[in-house]
Amino acid sequence: MTGWPEPEPPIGSRAIPLVTRDPPTRAAIAELIGTVDTDAVTTAWEGVLAVPGWPGPPVWTHGDLLPGNLLVRLSRIIGVIDFSCLGVGDPACDLIVAWALLSAQAERSFAQRSVDDATWMRGLGWALSIGLIALPYYRATNPAFAATARRMIAEALIDWDAIKPNPQGGISALK
Q: Does the pLDDT at position 112 exceed 90?
């Protein structure tokens, strides 16, 4: 048959505007009082929410590039599994791998070569949000994922302190 329109690609469940994560992220922050520096994570979270959204057309994203979904051999990613978050939207959600898996040196190299500053900051926001929401949910039932969540939060805060947006709108530490 001809004349049928092409189906629209699905919107990725994580390739959506970061602001949609605000209510569950703030609820998680409240659950983590005494576990994380809630003032620091709130400051970073509010900062990334102020970053402009994705200005381009939707792009395909995996949406869940966390260690449990990456096959690694000899320190190299050789495969990706779990495509349940696959869809189109803001590519920033796929940057979570930087805070969940990469070393600080690899993360800096990745930041300098991969995306614009605003997308990098939204990626930091995704890592922070996912870590904050996952930690109270998994800390008693899945220690490995809770450790990943703690790492994402810690690494995001380190980066936030190092690369806060400057008054001219850029992120000088990424240059």
A: no
For the CA atoms of the chain, what is the radius of gyration?
A: 17
Q: Is 76 left (phi over 0), alpha (psi -120 to 50) or beta?
A: beta
C-alpha distance across the termini of the chain, in Å: 52
Rounded distance, CA 169 to CA 143, Å? 38
> 103-125 burial by CB neighbour count: b if 16+ within 10 A, else e?
eeeebbebbeeebebbbbbbbbb
CA dist 26 to 30, 33, 42, 137, 149, Å?
Answer: 6, 11, 8, 14, 16
Length of the chain, please?
Answer: 175
* Rounded average pLDDT over 55-64: 95
**Residues 89/15, Cβ–Cβ less than 8 Å:** yes
Pairing status of strand 70-73 against strand 87-89: unpaired
The structure's pTM equals 0.89
Extract long-range pairs of 37-44: CB within 8 Å, 24+ residues apart. Answer: 37/157, 40/157, 40/160, 41/128, 41/132, 41/153, 41/157, 43/160, 44/124, 44/128, 44/156, 44/157, 44/160
Q: What percent of the chain is modeled with pLDDT above 90? A: 71
Cα 67 from Cα 45, distance rounded (Å): 23
